[in-house]
Amino acid sequence: MKHLPLLLLLLFFLPHLAAAELDIGMNIPLKNKEIYQENRLVAGISWHERGQVILTNSGDENLENIIVSVEVPLQMDIEIPIQSLKNISADNNIVTARIDELGPGESVSFIFSVKPPESIEFKKKASFVISASFDDGIGPRTSSYTHGIEIVPPPSWITYGTVLASISIIFLAFLFAWKFKVLESFTTIDLITIALLAGLIGVVFRWFWQTFNDLLGPLGGLLFTIPTAVLMIIALQLVRKPGTATLLFTVVELVALVVWGTNVTVWMGWYMTEGIIVDILVLLFKKDYADRRSTAIIYAVARSAYAYWMFYFFFAPAVWKVYYAPWYAWGEVGIATIGGFIGGAIGYSIAKKVRGAMM
Amino acid sequence: MKGIVLLISILLLVPLASAGEWRGEGTPLYTIAEGSIHGGVYVGGGHGLTYEDPYVEYFDLPDNIEYARLYVPMWNYNEGDWVEVTINENILGKKSEPDYVAAWGICDYVFNVTDELSPGMNTVSVTYHNTNGAPYSIVLVAVYKDATMPQTMFWIAEGNHALSEMKKIDNAEVIFESEHLKATTNATLWTMMIAGNEGEMDKLYFNSHLLGEDVGRRKSGAYFDLDRWDVTEFVGTTNNTVRFERGDESYIHPFNAILSVEYTQDQRDDYLQINPKVESKETTVPVAVIVVMVISILFLVYMVRRKK
To answer: Which of B50, B76, B218 sits opposite A30 (nearest CB)?
Structure first.
């Protein structure tokens, strides 16, 4: 019974104690989350990546003298961009921000930039530890939050490794072509056909796609995958030789290199694999050069899906150091698959008629 | 078979009949404004291609802005796109036509914002409609008056010049003309470039002095480089030349060069001269596209006739 007044006092003050709340959140990198992967920084980028700390007073009391400290992991270099909040500084891997007052329901945010490490061996997890002290009218209080991120390669050895693999693919493809006299089996007409179809893919339809892809919004990729699939099926049906697809996509990149100045020399081997996959499928289907609609669709879907998968999951992180959000990247692969399906189906009909007219 | 030939021909000719989106080589840098003032020049901005919408940048400005240009470089311009700039909650309205456009739709929206800015912190926000595109940055160039400061001569050059391997355009120059650069000190040059790549060696010269190599390397943000150079020891008494060399870059777009030179003592009356804006050249279909289409059609016709 003697503890009852104490209990009542505690119950009286408890709502007040619970009412003062400072919620802390963080966004990094400060990019469109619909496209880019959240909480993932890429090692070796040349710029500082922005992060944003958001503070929200979710309680009923006015918060004053808020001091926020952000411990930046991995000794990353810090820059403080110009922003509306002025009392921000960085020292010894700690970003400190001072906010005079934050009313109930109000939010305030500040930004800072960090430069990810030049290179790391493997994917690494790290954390930004954010702590805040403030006065809620009753006394000093604290709040803290830990924001986990992932620092991912490519470290240089992976990039060099992919270049080496690319060169190896080129070397093996030439070795295979030489050993089995693949190139000798192509007639002059075959080579002209492949060169022109490659020109149409690499110059005309690439330009067409770059020019009009916005018209279809997120489905813009179809403007390239469908014509590419159609022309690939035409090439297979007209030329009808092992290695046709590999030669076609090799010439596509060579043409793009000359005409558009795309710098793909060291990655050429990987681009060749788009064709190698199709040529392997042709052999698996017992030299069916897209002679059936079903095989035409299978080849076109395989090439389109593989090409887009390579772009979003290999070239983007390895070459351009960009990590796309998984759902976005897989969505694009899905659209490419649809493009391959449509292109394969149409390509079969067109190729059959073109072959009938020319051969 | 005639139907197929016709269909393919029409399909190939569709791009010719439509507005070409290869936007050409763009506009070489030229001096849009120059003058002298007791005061200085503010150049700031950021922060690379992030696809944020709205895209926000802050500028902490001095008092007495006499002249200001705001630049919003964008990726992937196409007809129907627009940007809307808001400065300190004052909406400037939608702008659909970029001022300069080049290559595959790298463009620049430019705004005269002299009367829109306030002393102290300014918030500039850009919302946009651009499928697959976004701002590279927001950059502000402002000339401000301060009677306590020495007289300063300034030049603001803008444009959007696509230096590209494809078109074999290897360098670009902008000349800041003057006959009054005597008794000077503290010369500063700012350059802004888009689409530079790390490791692809470009070069930047000021009056034949090499200022830097691999200047365009995305150091200020993705595909964005804003640099400040102390060129005091290189500044000439008459014309001063900024030269961008593409080097190993496949593409690089110089967008701005701004020079300010401080006099040790007053040389002339303060003035501001605004030059006429240079319009972008009309776009064309690349020759390679036409050549490949024509050869393909000829080959198809040849093969069909050969069979007959």
So the answer is: B50
Predicted pLDDT of residue B14: 37
Q: Give every strand in the sheet of B120-129, ordered side by side.
A: B55-61, B120-129, B82-87, B90-95
Q: How confident is the model at residue B125 (pLDDT cuts 50, 70, 90)?
A: very high
Compute the mean pLDDT over every residue in chain A, rounded to the nearest whole number: 85
A127-140 pLDDT tens trace: 999 999 999 878 89
Strand order in the sheet with B171-176: B171-176, B240-245, B203-206, B209-213
Contact A211 B58 (CB under 8 A): no
- The single-letter code of the amino acid at A142 is T
- What residues contact A335, with CB distance under 8 A and at least 6 apart? A218, A219, A221, A222, A225, A308
Domains in chain A, start-ordered, CATH in brackets?
15-152 (2.60.40.1530), 156-358 (1.10.1760)
Which amino acid is present at A143?
S
The tokens for A305 are 């899906």
β-strand partners of B5: none
Percent of chain B with pLDDT over 90: 63
Give how far Cα A315 sits from Cα of A145, A206, B45, B187, Å.
35, 18, 30, 43
pLDDT in tens, A76-99: 999 999 998 989 999 989 999 999
SS3 of B307, please?
helix
- The residues pairing with B38 across neighbouring beta strands, listed in sequence order, are B151
Determine contact: B290 vs chain A, CB below 8 A: no
Residues on chain A touching B47 (C-beta within 8 angstroms): 50, 81
Nearest chain B residue (CA) to A238: B303
Q: How far apart are CA A40 and CA A325, in angstroms?
A: 10
- Ranges of beta strands (E only) in A136-180 are 140-152
The phi-psi region of residue B231 (left if phi > 0; otherwise alpha if psi is between -120 and 50; otherwise beta) is alpha
In this structure, the number of other CB atoms found within 10 A of the CB of residue A183 comes to: 13
For residue A45, which of A316, A247, A231, A327 has the smallest C-alpha distance? Answer: A316
